[in-house]
Amino acid sequence: MKCDIIIPVWNQPESTKECIEAVTRTTKYPYRLILIDNGSEAETRLYLEGLKKLNSPEITLIRNETNLGYIKAVNQGLRVSDAPYVCIMNNDTVPGIGWLENLVTFAHQHNDMGLVNPLCDGHRDRTIDEYAEEVARNAGRYMEMNQCFGFCTLIKREVIEKIGYLDESFGIGGYDDTDYSMRAWKAGYRCASVHSSYVYHKQHVSFKATGAKDSFTLKGQREYLKKWPKHLRIGMIFFLNEGVSDKELENMLRAVLFLAREWCWINLWIFGPEAVNRDRADRAAKRIGMPLHQNIKFNYISERFANPQTLVRLVERSFGTKRRKKYDAIFADNGHSASFLKFFYPIHKTKVIFVKPETWEDTQSWKKFLSQAGRGS
User: Fold this and answer.
1) Are 353 and 331 in contact (CB under 8 A)?
2) pLDDT over 90 percentage in the chain
């Protein structure tokens, strides 16, 4: 087994050298470097040509006379790649010890995971390698995500064979990684952040050098929203008291996970005794095999003043600094809460839906809601 590591390069000689030297120093898993020189100036070009002459490790170098942009450069690498695993990597990253081995091990152990990211920040006052060795103890731990981010993404060959290359309609770059993750999901694959692998990311060094990062991002967002429906933001209200059965709690968590895996952002408010409910929800999540998920935020809040607290959050989303993240719907398992929030609809203007206990496990109802909201799969 082998991995092709694709690194597009446009100038940034210091970052490029640091990245490639870290790859060659820390990577024990068999690999080939596929370097795409996107019209770099002399210093970077000569450095890459020197690496090619050494050919240690194995290197394929592609030279473009002009900057074709990140996406086209990656696709050039994908076209010459033939390894079972492919890693697309930015030249403003610095991998730590064991980074690739731990990514591949995780991907191999999880058939449904098609794309995986390492952790990308956190070493602070430690060296990158020291932190990488520390997180390596997290073997098996991960966060499920709807999308992987393009700074360093390991992709299985079977995914590329099913969905193809990056979509070049996204131009220079921006939202291409979200699009690729969506296409992988449509083909039956999931994404994850692997907590045992560390690759430090300096954040958009090449994009910032163009002086037009924001315009690229905005263009990519427009292109993405032309192609895919928007991601829904949903609030879920659940009163967890002694009268709620374990089955009802488990069914609620299944519904939350189902919606999160349909690319919805879920803010879950569990009202009741905070410490008791946190422990009870954790145990229920373990029983149903519910993974940590990027799109689910748990909030454990005292039942006292539950309705006013929820109303304040809705108003903040509708009129405060988070206006663009306004909820698309609120689901409440308590009839009194649902009626209270509906009464104030003229203020927060958020759809409120009462959920009967037996409805949590009705997947068809959730699919119907998603379809009506234009978010169905």
Assistant:
1) yes
2) 78
pTM over 0.90: yes
**Mean pLDDT computed over 241-264:** 94
Q: Residue 175's pLDDT is what?
A: 95
Residue 3 phi, psi (nearest 5): -130, 135
Q: Are 266 and 234 in contact (CB under 8 A)?
A: yes
Please give the Cα distance from 280 to 44 (Å, whole number): 56
From CA 72, how far away is CA 218, in angstroms rounded?
19
Q: How far is CA 360 from CA 286, 296, 306, in A?
A: 18, 16, 21
- Is the model's pLDDT at 91 over the cut of 60? yes
Helix (H, G, I), strand (E, B) or coil at 146: coil
Are 103 and 119 in contact by the 8 Å Cβ rule? The answer is no
N- to C-terminal Cα distance for the chain?
A: 34
Beta bridge partners of 86: 4, 155
Q: Are 100 and 108 in contact (CB under 8 A)?
A: no
The SS3 call for residue 65 is: coil
The mean-pLDDT minimum among 19-28, 140-149, 174-183, 297-306 falls in: 297-306
Q: What is the DSSP string of 303-353?
A: STTHHHHHHHHHHHHHHSTTGGG--SEEEES-HHHHHHHHHTHHHH---EE
Structural domains for the chain? 3-227 (3.90.550.10), 233-372 (3.40.50)
Instruction: State the Cα–Cα distance between residues 239 and 225, nearest whole angstrom.
Output: 35
One DSSP character per residue, 212-252 reads -HHHHHHHHHHHHHHHSPPPPEEEEEEE--TTS-HHHHHHH
CA distance 38 to 137: 38
User: Residue 169 and residue 219: Cα distance in Å, rounded?
Assistant: 10
- Spatial distance between the Cα atoms of 184 and 114, rounded to a whole number of angstroms: 7
